[in-house]
Amino acid sequence: MKLEGIHHVTAITGDAPGNVDFYTRVLGLRLVKKSVNQDDPTVYHLFYADETGSAGSDITFFEYPGARRGRAGRGMVHTVVWRVGSADAVDFWQERLTREGLEAARDGDRLTFADPEGLGLEIRLVETGDEPLVAVHPDIPAAVAIQGFDGVRAYTGDAETSRAFLTDTLGFAPGGESGFEVRGDRRGSFYAYDEVAGTGWPGAGTVHHVAWSSLPEEHQAWRDRVADGGGRPTDIIDRYYFKSIYFREPSGVLFEIATIGPGFTTDEDVEHLGERLALPPNYEHLREQVEKVVTPLPDPRADWAVR
Ligand code: ZN
Fold first, then answer.
1. Which CATH superfamily groups domain 6-293?
2. What is the 54 CA–ligand 1 centroid distance (Å)?
3. Which of 176-197 are b and which e, b meaning 16 or more Cβ less than 10 Å from the residue's Cβ?
């Protein structure tokens, strides 16, 4: 039984319109689902991914309108790393991000920057046999587009406290830059630590949790294994697009294990992903009220036809 790399990464935004603009127009990801927070249907849960909404490419945001900026500290993911497929692609992104007025620091084939709310991001050249998970964008040739996650870096007070749980229970393989490889039969990602003494606080521009991919038929077994390893998982929660369990790894980072599928085409055709407000079935009868209170957002692809 192996986890198939990162499923999704979920972070916090205080500015949904700015968030949509940055992740779709600037980074070229596709808004694949415009849903609401299942605990508070007056605010969004936004999902950006490749063209079909694949696990392994999906960064999601809880909207807390006007939320103050947080800061990553111990027990929090601080940087999300994406792959591109060539050195030309790194050049492309350096130029594109600079043109957008963002500070992008180049170190060889890596480019580190932050989103408009301070979330740490990196684009790096990765040679891999994993399928490139790419979205379509009129200004970004497919050859240089972002190809899905490569990994995440988290802060810990002491990386050793997590080692046994990550390797023995979750099957992470030690390797590379104080990190671990999380690889299944289809796909892999890395998980790495940087040691830091300070505590952070949640808020806009911070990561809430990272989810790892499980085959649907192994999900219950993963829950059992996490429980046996002392991970205190939640019950299995049906998130409609996938099933999930949540637990904290020993360094304090909130982990989720989510099933690959049924996926985002469960309630929308792939051609129309993300265009309409998607409500969980138990909120569907409230659609009229909810549509009136959520922050108005543009359709990121509305002007494509005329370009
Ligand atoms: Zn999640």
1. 2,3-Dihydroxybiphenyl 1,2-Dioxygenase, domain 1 (3.10.180.10)
2. 14
3. eeebbbbbbeebbbbbbbeebe
